[in-house]
Amino acid sequence: MSLYELLYGVQQSRKINLINRLLKYVTVISFNEAAAREAATIHYSLKSRGLDIGVKDSFIAAICKAHNMPLLTGNIKHFIRISDIKVLPHENI
């Protein structure tokens, strides 16, 4: 999902070459069954409490939880709603 967001975001800015160079140093982590289960739980839990962050952000958080990895984001307000996930704020994303 994050790769999709990066690629989608650069379509208008014409920075696709920059992203392509960056991707040489990035490992894409899969959205597997464990992540799908996490995403369903996260999305349902937040939505039922009126704290919905949307499907894409639920997927991103779930991938991090399923792989026990921190999440670097410029959108802290969405991801701090989720327990058991380490959120690393980055103001330039």
Describe this structure in words.
Strand 1, helix 5 and strand 2 form a beta-alpha-beta unit. This protein has one domain (2-89): 3-Layer(aba) Sandwich (Rossmann fold). Strands 1-2 form a two-stranded parallel sheet. Helices cover 55% and strands 6% of the residues. The protein has 93 residues and is mainly alpha-helical. It contains five helices and two strands. The longest helix is centred in the middle third of the chain and has 16 residues, at 33-48.
The low-confidence parts are none
How many domains? 1
* Nearest-integer average pLDDT: 88
The spatial strand order of the largest sheet comes to: 1-2
Structural class: mainly alpha
Strand tally is 2
CATH superfamily: 5'-nuclease
- Percent of sequence in beta strands: 5-15%
User: What name is given to the CATH topology?
Assistant: Rossmann fold
Please state the CA-atom Rg, rounded to the nearest Å.
Answer: 14 Å
Distance between the terminal alpha carbons, to the nearest Å? 15 Å
Question: How would you describe the oligomerization state of the chains in this entry?
Answer: single chain
CATH top level is Alpha Beta
**Count of separate DSSP helical elements:** 5
Shape: globular
Helix percent reads 40-55%
Largest sheet composition = 2 strands, parallel
Q: Just name the CATH architecture.
A: 3-Layer(aba) Sandwich
- Helix-strand pattern: HHHHEHE
